[in-house]
Each structure stands twice: as structure tokens, then as C-alpha cells.
Amino acid sequence: MTTIINNINSQQFLAQWNAYKREIQKLIVGLEDVIDLSGIAFFSNGHFLMEALPGAGKTTLAEALSAAIKDGIGGYFPGTADLMPMDIIGSKAWNPETKKLEIQRGAINETMNIVVVDETNRLAPKTASCLLEVMQGRRINIQGFSMPCANPFLVIGTQNPIEQEGTYPMPEALRDRFAMRMNLKRLSRELEKMLISRSAVYATKQAEAAGIVPVLTPTMMIEMREFAQNLPIEDAVNGYIVDLVRATDPNCEEFEWMPKEHKETVLAGSGLRGSIWLTSTSRAHAAMRGSDKVHIKDVQAVAPFVLQHRVTLTPDAAFNGRKGQEEKIVRDLIQSVPTVR
Predict the structure, then answer these.
(1) Is 231-336 a CATH 1.10.8.80 domain?
(2) Which end of the chain is more exposed for a tag (fewer CB within 10 A), N or C?
(3) pTM for this predicted structure
(4) Res. 322 pLDDT band, cuts 50 70 90
(5) Measuring CA to CA, how many Å separate 306 from each of 41, 176, 204?
(6) Does domain 8-83+110-215 have CATH number 3.40.50.300?
(7) Residue pLDDT, tens place only, 217-228
(8) Would you say 299 and 240 are in contact if contact means Cβ atoms under 8 Å apart?
């Protein structure tokens, strides 16, 4: 039986998603997994964290993602320790001409659909809390004046995996608000050759030079998100999601499925929010492959990105060469948790 929601069925969803993806790929080369994660974030109403070196194409990605949305607007700002909350959300300032307090917009405003926050872990704790409020509440609150964020709204946070001087440990509350995290790998030699041969990458307005045209409207994306989040999930798949998330936590009996070589490395696992995001992102993944319902393979495809930043390693992990192994731990765990219980 074909699922139809808001006059959209699975094949229409897939056609619309593929059209959007083709436009983005006019500019973006070889980052198909990043594009897919962006789509999953959109259609699960989440945000994602990307670990990448400078020059990996984060700003270009935001420009391409927003350019393929009708009237879509992308934003970017670098995270620095001296940023104040008002630099992000804006403030009220006195206008001597009108003799009134007026809103001065910040780095994030109510028109933006996609915002890249570069080196998120350089934000001071108070400023990071302000960003968390915007991400969670999807509202910009300025001294008693409140504006809803654009819909759809996506924050792509980044971290530099090498240069850590002048950074703060990302607060767990902020880290947990990112639906997914991924480590961005360098392009292959052939893809890098293809990238530098494209004239659009040297243009000031890259998306325009690449010929990206808007194929989705915000309304279409909202309808697609609603379709995705209403895909049915069988009880057995729900059970697998719960078992997989609980298996990351040493305080749960399901931790027995954690591979032996990782047990001493894991200090804490994912909480309930991990189960919620794993469910939402699995629905989005299923919709993006044209399915009418969620399968266990959808859960397994997104689980490494949903759970890796929710697994905390022991302090000793850095000394025994296990630091940064969270994704591998989750992937190994997926092989151990039974799909039928």
C-alpha cells in the first residue's frame, strides 16, 4: 500500500529530492554523503555537526543548498572566542534619526534557511548557549522581541579536528542538540581534479556561476518533511532502535552487546534523545530512498552519524590510541546488536 501524505507519495518525494540533489551537484563534487546528511537533517528537522579541516567546502555547500531552494538564503559566520550573544542573534540599538530603539540583526536572522557556524567549539560558553537556544527553539529572542527562524532551518556546525588552541570543550547540551555528526574526508585524487576544472568554484557567486536553479520551495520541503516523519515504523524496528541506543550505555543491560574490545573504552552512552533522533533520521533516510516505511537497514545507515557524538570515551582513551574512535565503536556495535529479539 502506497503511503500518501499531503498529496505526496514515496515516488514523488524521491523525484523531488533527486531534482534538488542534482542542482547541488552542479557545484559540489564528491560530497554525496554530506549532501545526503543535509537532506536527512532537513527532513528530520535537525541540525548536523561536521568535523572538517579549513577549505573543505563548508561555505560552498551552504550556498549550494540554499540556492536550490526558491528564495533560499544561506549564512556563514566563524566561531571566535570574542563573539557575544548579540553578535549571533542581534540586539536593540538607538537610532538617533528615528529616536527609537531598533533591531540590529546578528549573524543569524529570521530569513536564513541554512547557517554554517564554523569552528563551533571556539564559541565562549555563554555564546554557545545562545546558539543552542536558537537551534532548539528555532526562534531569535532579542530583549523581549521574538522572531521565528525561517522554515526550513538548518544549522551546520563545524569543528577543526587538528587545531585545538583557543577552543572550549563543546558543552554536552549543545553537542546533543545536533541530530548527527560526521567526519569529512578529503576528496579522492580524481574528484579533486574534477573540482578544480569547474570554473564555478573560482567565481564570487559560485551557485549562480554553476547554474543552480531553485527546484524546491520552502512549502514543498515542509510537506516532504511531514511525509517523511509520518512514515510507519514496525514495532520490531522500534525495538531495534531502542536496543541499539541502550547498548551504548554501560548502565544498561544491553551493553552486553558492546564488542569486548570497546567495553573498557566507553565511559557513557547515548540518552533518550539519541533514540528520538535515530527514529526521526531513519524515517528521513527511508523517504530519501523512496520507501513507504522504515526498515532496519535505514536505522543502520544513519546510526553511526546519530550516535557517535553521544558516546563518551574514558579519559584513558587518549593515552591508548582510542581517541576519535566513536564512529568505529558504533559501527562495530551495529554488527553485534541482534535485529530480532
Answers:
(1) yes
(2) N
(3) 0.89
(4) low
(5) 11, 10, 34
(6) yes
(7) 999 999 999 999
(8) yes
